[in-house]
UniProtKB/TrEMBL annotation:
This is Uncharacterized protein. It comes from Schistosoma mattheei. It comes from the Eukaryota. GO terms for cellular component: eRF1 methyltransferase complex. PANTHER family: METHYLTRANSFERASE N6AMT1 (PTHR45875). InterPro entries: Euk-Arch_PrmC-MTase (IPR052190), SAM-dependent_MTases_sf (IPR029063). GO terms for molecular function: protein methyltransferase activity; S-adenosylmethionine-dependent methyltransferase activity.
Length: 178
């Protein structure tokens, strides 16, 4: 990607590289898991998905989601350049978190990866961050106001417990908290 394309996409940063280190350290365990369906939520530049997919030798279908359409294009481009097409099929979906996938992928995702935004911002900044570049790093008050808790554990309105309902019986949820 060139610099102008990255201006609207969260570039790989320290947190991204720490996530890659964790994936590398867990590679033996993840290989034993033998995932067939994996998901990265908020894929941004796509570097985490590309690293993961390029390290898998078994057949796999991988999905990236991002609220930013520009980030979706970036993820697809990075995957196309870095992932051998022999064993991994992938797709990128423009949506918030992964809630739209829930009915179809109920209890079938083997691995969910999520590197949530964590930069402390005002509540107003956080609320205004929808599909803009701000959404990629805005963590709200104390950097922990990501809509993550409602997404993880459901909300009073939706009664959806998304992560537990997406994960397969022995599924793994890798999340980076700073």
């Amino acid at each position: 990607m060139n610099e102008s394309e990255f201006s609207e996409v969260y570039p790989p940063s320290e947190d991204s590289y720490l996530f890659l280190d964790a994936l590398e350290l867990d590679s033996g365990f993840l290989s034993e898991l033998r995932p067939t369906l994996t998901l990265e939520v908020g894929s941004g530049s796509g570097v985490i998905s590309a690293f993961f997919c390029s390290s898998i030798s078994k057949p796999l279908f991988h999905i990236c989601t991002d609220i930013s359409l520009t980030a979706c294009y970036a993820s697809l481009r990075v995957l196309n350049v870095n992932v051998p097409s022999t064993s991994v099929t992938y797709d990128v979906i423009n949506c918030s978190l992964a809630t739209p996938l829930l009915p179809r992928l109920y209890k079938s995702v083997d691995l969910i990866m999520f590197n949530p935004p964590y930069v402390p911002t005002t509540s107003d900044e956080h609320k205004a961050a929808s599909s803009t570049i701000v959404a990629s790093w805005s963590g709200g008050r104390l950097g922990r106001e990501v809509r993550l808790l409602c997404w993880l554990f459901g909300s009073v309105k939706s009664y959806k417990f998304v992560v537990p309902n997406l994960l397969a019986g022995i599924g793994i949820f890798l999340v980076f908290f700073r």
